[in-house]
Amino acid sequence: MDSTKLSTAGVVLSVAAVTLAVASLLHFGLAIPIGSATISDPFAGAAIPEAVIALAVAAGAVTALTHLATARWLAPAATLFALVGTLYGLTVTLRRGQAGDIAYHLALLTMLIASAVLLLSALRSRSVG
């Protein structure tokens, strides 16, 4: 397995996990002050699913960053789980029509797709080499 690609995927998954955890906290009702503005987006229906996805992605990130043998299946499984959940979340967000939420879901999808490509490439390099 290509350790550089695996580590890079782990970093991207870590960023995704942190953003999902923050989104979950925001949806649980936490308000985050940023200068003179405050980010607040209480939406109970998304809070728990985002927390669960954050934990799964964090587990995948840890296995990838530490190069554990379980990274071969856990990191791709966590990424796939997050992709499905994020696509569903995007459908909900599109109906709500909030531009910031839509942009976040699209950015998250980009991170997850990049992670998936890196993970597949890392796995493939082992089977070929």
Can you give a write-up of this model?
The protein has 129 residues and is mainly alpha-helical. It has one domain (3-128). The protein has four helices and two strands, in the order H-E-E-H-H-H. Strand 1 (32-34) and strand 2 form a beta hairpin. Helix 2 runs antiparallel to helix 3 (71-96) and helix 3 packs antiparallel against helix 4. The longest helix is centred in the C-terminal third of the chain and has 30 residues, at 99-128. It is elongated, with a radius of gyration of 16 Å.
| CA-based gyration radius | 16 Å
Mean pLDDT: 93
Q: How many separate structural domains? A: 1
Largest sheet: 2 strands, antiparallel
Order of strands in the sheet with the most strands?
1-2
Number of helices: 4
Question: How are the SSEs ordered, and which strands pair?
Answer:
Layout: H1 3-28, E1 32-34, E2 37-39, H2 44-65, H3 71-96, H4 99-128
Antiparallel strand pairs: 1-2
Helix pairs in contact: 1-2, 1-4, 2-3, 3-4
